[in-house]
Structure formats: C-alpha cells, structure tokens
Amino acid sequence: MPASLPAPTSAVVYCEGLFAEQDGKTANGLVRHSERYRILSVVDSRHAGEDSGLVLDGAANGIPVLGSIAEAIAHAGFVPGTLIVGMAPAGGMLSAGHRTALLDGMSRGMNLVNGLHEFLDDEPEFAAAALLAGVTIEDVRRPKPKSEMHLFSGRIFDVTCPRIAVLGTDGAVGKRTTSTLLVQALNARGIRAVMVGTGQTALIQGARYAVALDASVPQFLSGEVENEVVAAFENEQPDVIVVEGQGALSHPAYLTSAYILRGSRPDAVILQHAPARVMLDDFPMMPVPSAAQEIRLIESFAATRVIGVTINHENMTDAEVTAAIDAHELELGLPATDPLSRPLDALVDMVLTAFPELEHTSPASAAAAATPGATH
Q1: pLDDT for the residue numbered 89
Q2: Which of 109, 231, 232, 303 has the fewest Cβ atoms within 10 angstroms?
Q3: b/e for 186-215, b at 16 or more Cβ within 10 A?
Q4: Are 33 and 7 in contact (CB under 8 A)?
Q5: Phi and psi dihedrals of 212, rounded to 5?
Q6: Measured between alpha carbons, how far is 3 from 115 in angstroms, rounded to an integer?
Q7: Longest distance between any two alpha carbons in the chain, whole Å
Q8: Which pLDDT score is estimated for 372?
C-alpha cells in the first residue's frame, strides 16, 4: 500500500563540501524535487550566499546555500523541523566535521534524517544527543526485518502497463532526476505515470513506492523491486511505470541494476550517460563505458530494449551537448536528449515513439477521438 504522506515539513539539507558534486546527489535531488519536505536551505560553506538552483542547474530556485546550520536557522527565522544528511559518498560514512555539525543541529532541536549506510541511531553519541534534545533520528537505509522482505514471486507478470527502467553508465549520473522529470512530463501530458524509487534519495523525497536496494539482502532484491512495482500498479492503475535505476549493469561495485532488470522486467530502458565523464565516479581506475557498450550489455542480459539515451551535461557547453545528442542519435539510431537543458517534450516523445498506444490514454487524445472527423 502507498504510504500516507504528511504535508511537507520544513527542512535544511546539510551537504558541507559536496553540494552540486556527484557525492552530494541527495542534496542535489532534494533541491530539484521533494514531496515530503519543504527545503528551506542547503548548508555548504563553499557556496555560501549563492542560490542552490543557480549553482546546480544555472536557474534560480529561491533555495539559498548558507555557510552553517546556525545561519540556516537564522535565515528561516525559526528552527526547521528536520536536518537532512545530503551527502552520499561511496563509502557512506561521515567525517568528524560532518558529525560535529549534525550533532549541533540536533542540539538546536532538529530531527535528523540520514540516508547513509552508517546508522546514526545505533551510535551512543547520536542516540544520547537525540534523547537529550527530544528529537528523532531516521536512518533511511535501515533494512526491513527479513520477515517483511519479498522473494521474487512472478506477480510482475500480472502488471499489464508498460514498465520503463532508467538505467545508466555510472552511479550518480542522473537516473533519478531523469526518472522524476519523465514522470512529471508524462502526467502533464495526461498520461498517468508512477515512479518506483530504488534508492535512499527517492525515499527522502517522499516517493510513495520505493526501496533502498543497496541496503537490502541480495536474496530479496529482485522480489523487493517486484513488490514495489506491483503495489504501484495495483494501487494507482497507471498507464506506465518508471523505475529508477541504480549504479550501472557494467559497474564493478554497484550490482543493483541487475536486480532492477530481473525484478521489474522492464519493457523498455532509457539509458542515462555523461559523455564528458571519462572514469567512473569514485572509481578512477575504471573507464566509463560508452552508451553503445552499455546498451549491448543490457539487451543481452535482459529481455528488453533500449529506447533512447538521456545526456548528463556535466562539464559540457551547450554546443557540446547538442553535438553529443546528434552523435548518439546517429551512432545508435535512437532518440537522445538532455532532460535538464532541453524541452521535456523530447523525453516524452521518446516514450511515445516506443509505446504509441500511450498517446491515446491522454484526455486530449480521447477528446479528439470523440470528435466527428477527427484524425490521428
């Protein structure tokens, strides 16, 4: 069943030294989209005084970056309800400076939301600080009891709407952002779309259907993905389900893409790729595969097809993005776009080209079909 989400509560995102970087992806995602929290500010002294949207995407969003938690409280004019750990480093651990800052925020009366592998509620120092300040600690990646986990059951074969997985050529490459934008754009076109999240950031953002795959027991991963997709289908009756990817199928350390492909059994895949990224994020000894290499691997591993490529424009000029889009379309024979810098119609059209029947699910299409003499 979908979680009943409360009204957004105020929150500050702590991302010292990492905002707008690959290891700041939780903070990056929250300033772009959050259903669960009203994000008031981001803490990162490197960008203090700047607008987080300008820093991240070149477009102001009104959420400031401030130098400290004390400044964030002063800017809000009250103590925000929640302090969110916005970092997501490869090792999933906090530095001594980060720990001191988070403890300070808790002492000021802020509940702590932590998406790292390091469970702070288990640590005596944090548990004592929470008790003393009367606040809570939510360790988002804490797995469910094994008795509540799901093995693959085959129920995925009862899901009759198209399922699209957004996979990538690396971790922290924009899969969740593209998934979110795609769902929003499809819904705006009158096509009922639901996203299934697979990481801690989606859970913090307030995704109704999500599981932190990299914190679960491998035996249950396919079943956990399947369970969330089936729940989304049964409860929402969507026209299409979009499944957020994790890591990359080719990645030597992050293997969750394999379970996403097995558990969700996607009818199609959109591949997210950063052409200017040479080596894997946090793994500088390994080169990033080309989009063509990853597509061959995906289509040989699973009974699915890649229907398009989405470009991450990091370290690229606008002209270079255009050239990359053209080059990938020419090489692969697939549509390509950059969801963050190009109109979202291109992303929607990528899906409608692969699944033309979805075009006729929108109210506008239904109205046109009911009009005498209407053509399609």
Answers
A1: 76
A2: 303
A3: bbebbbbbbbbbbbbbbbbbbbbbbbbbbb
A4: no
A5: -85, 90
A6: 18
A7: 72
A8: 45
Task: Give the pair of three-digit tokens for residue 177.
Answer: 């952002």
Q: For the chain, what is the HEC assignment?
A: CCCCCCCCEEEEEECCCCCCCHHHHHHHHHHHCCCCEEEEEEECHHHCCCEHHHHHHCCCCCCEEECCHHHHHHHHCCCCCEEEECCCCCCCCCCHHHHHHHHHHHHCCCEEEECCCCCHHHCHHHHHHHHHHCCCEEECCCCCCHHHCCCCCCHHHHCCCCEEEEEECCCCCCHHHHHHHHHHHHHHCCCCEEEEECCHHHHHHCCCCECCHHHCCHHHHHHHHHHHHHHHHHHHCCCEEEEECCCCCCCCCCCHHHHHHHHHCCCEEEEEECCCCCEECCEEEEECCCHHHHHHHHHHHCCCCEEEEEECCCCCCHHHHHHHHHHHHHHHCCCEECCCCCCCHHHHHHHHHHCHHHHHHCHHHHHHHHCCCCCC
pLDDT at res. 5: 52
Distance of CA 26 to the CA centre of its chain: 8
Instruction: Tell if the pTM clears 0.85, that is, is over it.
Output: yes
Quickly count: other Cβ atoms within 10 Å of residue 117's Cβ: 17
Residue 44 and residue 17 in contact, taking contact as beta carbons nearer than 8 Å: yes
Residue 6: C-alpha distances to residues 29, 37, 108, 202 (Å): 20, 9, 23, 16
Q: What is the pLDDT of residue 370?
A: 47
Which amino acid is it at 154? Answer: G
| pLDDT per 10-residue tile (average), the chain, 376 residues | 59 97 94 96 98 96 98 97 91 86 98 95 97 97 94 98 98 96 98 97 96 93 98 98 98 95 98 98 95 98 98 97 98 98 98 95 56 41
pLDDT for position 93: 77
